[in-house]
Amino acid sequence: EITMPRPTRRRVVCVANQKGGVGKTTTAVNIAVALALHGNRVLVIDLDPQGNASTGLNVPHHVGVPDVYDCLIDGTALADVAQQVDGIPNLSCVPATIDLAGAEIELVSVVARESRLARAIQASSTEYDYIFIDCPPSLGLLTVNALVAAQEVMIPIQCEYYALEGVQALTSNIALVKSHLNPALDITTVLLTMYDRRTRLADLVEQDVRAHFGDKVLHAVIPRNVRVSEAPSYSQSVMTYDPGSRGAISYFEAAQEIAERGARVGGLA
Ligand code: ADP
Ligand code: MG
After folding, report:
1. Complex ipTM
2. pLDDT confidence tier of residue 149, bands split at 50, 70 and 90
3. Which ligand is nearest to the CA of 237?
4. Which ligand is nearest to the CA of 226?
């Protein structure tokens, strides 16, 4: 039976890995839906100009829709741009429109450019148990804003060649942000994605990642599963599209572990 205890205080989780296509968005969307379906109040902030998390949650994000760009550049309140996700009562999303593509450059000349998102989150009076920030595949100012705003980093790692390559650059950026801008920041969660049991490679990658990150790696591993990749084209998460699929079951297990670990992670309870 799945239980997902609500945290005693809000958890802000940055989902990051500067490699594209490793499952960041899929993970942010499905973990958020799983937690919301089990009684948590959840917000997803789409911080990727491609807007895949907005698409995956079926939240309008065409040109002209108020979005996270407005929060970062104009100081608009999160509550003024957050949209309720259809069919999932406890879940909202701050969408990204194509406007966000300019933000990386525009932020350079803005006051407190690294902490715009942190300020928006701190100023938000809406009560959330979880805020997930879906990062773009880069280590630029958008990702830095996410790292400054979060207490936790979750790193999805795809089980393939060179899985750990580039993670070094991410971890040193995290260390920099932690020492200069956000002492509360820690890598708390690593999730293996697109795991293919039939290959010896997946097994080797898993061993490598567990050796490197120890107990930050969730026991739950997300298999490569076609239902996961089909779901967005039906404007759904796999959790609602096919809750009995192996992909959905694994994401439910991962969300449960995240909820249960919350109390144990340093400084969270
Ligand atoms: P990122 O946000 O890191 O760029 P995505 O979450 O968009 O990565 O995933 C990249 C692609 O892989 C997408 O097309 C997605 O549907 C697919 N995908 C992600 N996870 C799985 C999975 N477990 N099984 C099959 N396909 C997946
Ligand atoms: Mg993405």
Report:
1. 0.99
2. very high
3. 1
4. 1
